[in-house]
Amino acid sequence: MNGLFRRVLIANRGEIALRIIRACRELSVETVAVYSEADRDSLHVRFADRAFCVGPAPSTRSYLDIPNIMSAALLAGADAIHPGYGYLSERAEFADICETHGLTFIGPTADQISLLGDKSVAKETMLKAGVPVVPGSDGPVARQDDAVALARDMGYPVIVKASAGGGGKGMRVARNAEELARGYTLARTEAQAAFGSDEVYIEKFIERPRHIEVQILADNHGHVVHFGERECSIQRRHQKIIEEAPSPAVSERLRSQMGQAAVKGAAAVNYRNAGTMEFLLDEDGKFYFMEMNTRIQVEHPVTEMVYGVDLVKEQIRIAAEMELGYEQSQIQPISHAIECRLNAEDPDKKFIPSPGRIDFLHIPGGHGVRWDSHVYSGYVISPYYDPMFGKLICWGMDREEAILRMQSALREVDVRGIRTNVGLHQWILADSRFAGGDISTKYLEEALVERSAAHG
Ligand code: MV4
Q1: How far apart are CA 420 and CA 402, in angstroms?
Q2: Residue from 120, 156, 202, 206 to probe ligand 1 pocket by mutation (most atoms less than 8 Å from CB)
Q3: 3-state SS, residue 187
Q4: pTM here?
Q5: What is the pLDDT of residues 43-97, one digit of tens each?
Q6: Domains of the chain: residue spans and CATH
């Protein structure tokens, strides 16, 4: 026995399912894959020790179908479930059902997921714990008049956010009372439709912020450590496309401050598992807590490469009640890493998805180059799921070397049969604003306007 688990079921698909299988294998833990009818030929099915079909292509009937996944887990004799990201990873109900059936959910407790999933409650909790949060309402705002009165005291612009939201859904910016009256009602209606709750809260709107997130690990024995930050400002419609660690905007001093804030916040809720504290960094260098993600994230590899840590293996060890074997002072970044998310989509046609058969695939290698993906030459990308078909991650001695290595690697990428965003990545990597680290969450939107003008 490895002292961990005998058999882990992976309740996910795509590159993250494969990533989890690799971590399990290194830990001598057996793996059980689940897949939809559309994913029969995916690498996670091939490389797991066993695989169960859990339903047809639509996620609601397969990767989100709790009874089907629980049946597979019990039938396979799994003793733990890794949820990956997305799908069931932040469903308190699923964590609860796992525990009820005697299976370990590789993540935080159901109560922690619920608490941190309510963004308004999470913010209040962090405020009490001494973590800087964006100034705003004291919890939810139940009436439009209250919203307007509050904004008058606070000053415009403000932003209305759904308590059950996150990731950008159900948000409305208001620059005056009239916009707020409209935005407040719209945000509530949208939140009700999207999340089944119309509870909203209000914050001061921060102009041109950076999105910086801090990676933490917390075990069941009271140890919490952080692994610095990731710069995640390059996004479109709340979908990140390039991430890097460390952020060119974060000094060693700021890293230590944000790290300590993240650790304090996680400790305040007795957190366990890997987790991410999302912050906004304003133009004056002040940072504010926004939300906490209770899952492994897509962009975790940049942290892994810079800190030499395997975050997925750490998640599994933590879930098996093992103690973190190191202290904060032993955790030091070694230079720089950048991740490009490769998507099957056409950036020149409003990012329309481009599913289909990959007729030929060549992926770069070499020193400091990592490729996390479930695809191969001949693989068919399904229209049912996210268009991301792989992540190219490059490490360098410094940011400049990481950028040069990524540019070199992107030149070697050869994907035929589908449209991809490789050209857009090359364009961003060659942009002087990116090279200068001069970016905010507004960057991509503005850069795309210029790029399309240049493309004619
Ligand atoms: C904000 C903000 C400015 N001020 N909150 C977007 C996702 C969700 N997690 C919160 N978001 C924002 N909250 C205040 N008070 C700007 C955003 C925002 C954003 C944040 C991170 C990355 C990209 C973004 C794009 C647009 C808006």
Answers
A1: 22
A2: 206
A3: helix
A4: 0.97
A5: 999 999 999 999 999 999 999 999 999 999 999 999 999 999 999 999 999 999 9
A6: 7-106 (3.40.50.20), 135-204 (3.30.1490.20), 210-454 (3.30.470.20)
